[in-house]
Design brief:
The complex is a heterotrimer of chains A (265), B (285) and C (336). Chain A is mainly α. Chain A contains eleven helices and no strands. The longest helix of chain A is centred in the first third of the chain and has 34 residues. Chain B is 76% helix and 1% strand. The longest helix of chain B is centred in the C-terminal third of the chain and has 39 residues. Chain B has a two-stranded antiparallel ribbon. The chains are: A mainly alpha (265), B mainly alpha (285), C alpha+beta (336).
């Protein structure tokens, strides 16, 4: 790498942009420790907002809802999505374009359209809005992401290993169990983590299909923001950010490129 | 193993029920009529689409497009160098570098917009700082206008631009640059004539992602734009929640969806042409 | 000798490409047979059909007199050493080797016994707990062989296994494989495009060109009695002479002798033959143990190649005028 002023300029600029990305979030977190209710002036370090957060039953309820919904959505969407990715990878389908379109459209269509389409569906079918509709909605948008994530991992699938297994007397099922599955497992887990993160974080689609008694964390934050500024929001946001970041980092570590580089003792 | 083919079915059936059919329903509702009490009755009308053509709504649509364009341009100007910088890092650091940039992307739009509210509002960080430093006498009204909304969008969508461009740059055959250098091109010229054109696919992908996302946004305008700034996203949200005019809201959504689909198809078409062009070149070679 | 593998009227088509028009082939128990040919000639396809990884478009495959044409690979008693080894990256060496035994539900104790044996045989004992990625190409190669051998297959199929190794290592492995085959008395079917490798290791070489068998013989016969110009060209180096009646003569370089043009051809020493052609030395190429001497003939500008050795009394220079001669018995007549 030639070290010249080009590189220096480039990296300074890039660093500035990255700082731009992180600064607001750091300020947000910083002020969650501020003693003052009216943020900007720093009056002292405190954990009281976190404390009041832990006593806030509505927050805890929203959190519980988010976790339950995310867990169920992730499980089901990962199962369905993985099966689909496997099938698409292994077999040829006549209506391949239709299937591909169906898989990609939920990601390409603006979320707001997807959200309200589900609202229309549920209202026309007379299904009451609540935790169930949230779960159904979340599964819907998670499936596509899982299919694509696992699918990407399957692209690197090594048919020669499967042939070798067959040559060594493994039935097709055994080949899947001992060879194919362990090798795609990181991709499946990555897909599951992405689904979980998407579900926990989802606002727009949840906005349309949540009922009055089923708030998720993002929806709760929205209500708080609309009501007015309170450092409790800062504290809550900071917690949510930490959780999201951890999940994302773990998921990225399990992505394809890392398996072959696995260094050991 | 013949039955393996059926593995595809559950997810596909699910998507048909919970994606395809609802979409069709929205199309249906967009042609329906609204009673004065806010109910939807299925009496066919084009009125909702016609209403869209009124100046008020067209203005909002234009405003949305402008915001989207500006957002795309700025995310490109900010995003390309970042992607390039990551691609220039030593191999070991590229994945962590990417993660660093992508992490904000995973954090809720809401939280990210809220962070800017804290910074920009009249009792926010910027104003307090400026007041304390004596640079201004009374707080600036930085929030609740179009600029704030655009800023918020750029902030929210920047990572969308970085990833595709990074992938494109990373796939660039470095030997082409070596050849260019060998033939007398300075780094700047090589960038302009080789890197930039060859990373067009990534730029296009990122731009489409940002543009379409920007069109459908309502969180950012809602939180940072207040009542004044209305984009299509807010308009649609409004129709479904406060105004209870589902047919009109549906019509607007369909317009939005069609716009998104057209852009995507255009992008896809261009991509195919490029690929076809490459294949043609390979045949000649 | 007992028949081990028989391919009967095998044809193979991929879409509209006819890879193998029709082949009949028999391989006997205990043989080291090599399928030799240029890339794309169909040799690997044949090997894979024996393994069961490809199905013939028509024809039958017999292993030990049993018709296995319709049998899946995991039901056949042959094992393959893959070109890129295909070692399972998420398993250690020992686990890789264990795999076939596990699938066949061999009792655990016996598994360990057999694995230990084969580890000893392939000198992998110290590496048994490593992952494939942590080993060199040569070591991975041996794991692939061990993994196949531990199953005591009737036939071992080897698909260009030494291609990725450097020259010295390749030579060493060739010897090891030959010794292994001989010591264990197994049938080996080996595929390669390297004719030197084929000649060194095999009892019998089958030369395949565009899906057809050009010649099927012991190495020395292939070399000394090529059946066609293709074989003569592919195996070793050759000089070709076309006779008046349109037959082609093949002379190996080492059979060609040069003498100075000035020599009186009427007073030749005992046993020597008069020059058949005259020409000029146009090039000398240093090849380590020998020099290649290129001579351009006067009559038709054809260039002929022969060798000179470091201990030759007469060492040729460029522009020397020479007479070229050989013994009639060293000529091989081939049809084109």
């Amino acid at each position: 790498m030639k070290k010249n002023w080009h590189s220096a300029l480039l990296f300074s600029y890039a660093l500035a942009v990255v700082a731009f990305l992180y600064l607001p979030l750091m300020i947000l977190s910083l002020y969650s420790f501020n003693d003052s209710r009216i943020n900007a002036v720093w009056t002292g370090f405190t954990l009281k907002w976190y404390a009041s957060l832990s006593h806030n039953t509505r927050v805890l309820e929203a959190l519980t809802n988010s976790l339950i919904i995310a867990s169920i959505s992730t499980t089901i969407s990962t199962l369905l999505g993985t099966f689909t990715a496997l099938a698409l990878n292994r077999y040829q389908y006549k209506h391949k374009n239709f299937i591909n379109g169906l898989v990609y459209l939920p990601i390409l269509i603006p979320e707001i359209v997807m959200g309200l389409s589900l609202l229309v569906l549920f209202s026309q079918l007379g299904i009451a809005l609540g935790k169930n509709t949230l779960i159904l909605a979340h599964i819907t948008f998670c499936i596509s992401f899982v299919i694509i994530t696992v699918g990407a991992r399957l692209e690197g699938r090594r048919t020669d290993l499967e042939e070798a297994a067959g040559d060594l007397y493994a039935t097709p099922f055994q080949t899947f169990r001992y060879i194919t599955f362990p090798l795609i497992l990181p991709g499946i887990i990555a897909g599951a983590l992405i689904a979980f993160t998407l579900s926990i974080d989802d606002f727009i689609i949840s906005f349309f299909v949540a009922g009055p008694n089923s708030t998720t964390l993002p929806l709760y934050i929205y209500a708080m923001v609309k009501r007015g500024i309170s450092p409790e929001i800062n504290a809550l946001s900071t917690c949510l950010m930490c959780a999201t970041v951890s999940l994302v980092v773990i998921s990225q570590i399990l992505q394809p490129s890392n398996f072959s580089n696995k260094k050991k003792h | 193993m013949k039955n393996g083919k059926l593995l595809v079915a559950p997810a596909i059936v699910w998507l048909i029920i919970f994606f395809a059919i609802p979409m069709l329903m929205v199309v249906a509702v967009s042609f329906a009529t609204r009673t004065p009490y806010g109910q939807v009755i299925f009496k066919f009308t084009l009125g909702n689409y016609v209403r869209f053509l009124e100046p008020l709504y067209l203005k909002i649509f234009a405003s949305t497009l402008v915001t989207a364009v500006v957002t795309t341009v700025f995310t490109f100007l900010m995003g390309y160098p970042v992607a390039y910088a990551i691609a220039k890092l030593p191999k070991k650091w590229q994945q962590p570098g990417l993660i660093v940039v992508m992490v904000p992307f995973w954090i809720n739009f809401l939280i990210r917009s809220y962070a800017w509210v804290i910074i920009l509002r009249s009792q926010g960080v910027v104003n307090t700082l400026l007041l304390k430093l004596g640079l201004i006498a009374k707080p600036l009204s930085l929030l609740y206008n179009d600029y704030a909304v655009t800023l918020g969008m750029i902030y929210a969508l920047l990572p969308f631009m970085v990833l595709p461009i990074y992938v494109s740059i990373e796939q660039l055959d470095k030997r082409l640059l070596e050849a260019a250098s060998d033939l007398g091109a300075s780094p700047l010229v090589a960038f302009q004539k080789i890197t930039l054109p060859l990373t067009m696919p990534g730029i296009a992908a990122g731009s489409i992602l940002v543009f379409i996302s920007s069109l459908g946004m309502f969180v950012v305008p809602d939180v940072m734009g207040g009542a004044k700034s209305a984009l299509i996203g807010n308009l649609i949200q409004n129709q479904f929640l406060s105004a209870r005019d589902w047919p009109f809201g549906s019509a607007l959504s369909i317009v939005l969806a069609i716009l998104a689909l057209i852009l995507i198809m255009l992008y896809y078409r261009v991509l195919q042409q490029q690929k076809g062009g490459q294949k043609h070149e390979e045949k000649l070679a | 000798m007992e028949e081990m593998i028989r391919l009967e009227n095998i044809t193979k088509k991929f879409d509209d490409n006819i890879i193998i028009p029709k082949i009949n082939l028999t391989i006997y128990d205990g043989e080291f047979v090599t399928l030799l040919g240029p890339s794309g000639c169909g040799k690997t396809t044949l090997l894979r059909m024996i393994a069961g990884l490809e199905t013939p478009t028509s024809g039958k495959v017999y292993i030990d007199n049993e018709d296995v044409t319709a049998l899946a690979p995991y039901k056949r008693n042959v094992n393959m050493v893959f070109q890129n080894y295909a070692l399972f990256p998420h398993m250690t060496v020992r686990e890789n080797i264990r795999f076939g035994l596990l699938m066949k539900k061999v009792p655990r104790e016996e598994q360990d016994q057999r694995i230990d044996q084969v580890l000893y045989l392939t000198q992998l004992e110290k590496l048994q707990d490593r992952l494939p990625q942590q080993m060199s190409g040569g070591q991975q190669q041996r794991v692939a062989i061990a993994r196949a051998l531990v199953n005591n297959p009737k036939v071992l199929l080897l698909d260009e296994p030494l291609g990725a190794l450097d020259y010295k290592l390749r030579k060493k492995m060739q010897l090891e494989l030959k010794n292994l085959q001989h010591g264990l008395g197994l049938t080996f079917i080996y595929v390669t495009h390297d004719q030197e490798e084929a000649l060194t290791m095999s009892d019998r070489v089958i030369i395949i060109n565009a899906g057809r068998i050009e010649q099927d013989d012991a190495p020395n016969k292939l070399y000394n009695e090529p059946a066609s110009t293709f074989v003569a060209n592919f195996v070793g180096e050759s000089n070709f002479f076309t006779e008046e009646n349109n037959t082609t003569l093949v002379i190996r370089p080492e059979k060609i002798n040069l003498r100075p043009e000035e020599v009186d051809e009427t007073k030749l020493p005992e046993g020597q033959v008069p020059s058949k052609y005259f020409g000029t030395v146009v090039d000398l190429v240093f090849c380590g143990n020998i020099d290649k001497v290129y001579v351009r003939l006067d009559n038709n500008n054809q260039v002929v190649m022969t060798y000179q050795y470091f201990d030759d009394v007469k060492r040729w220079q460029i522009d020397d005028r020479v007479g070229i001669w050989w013994f009639d018995k060293d000529e091989v007549k081939v049809k084109a």
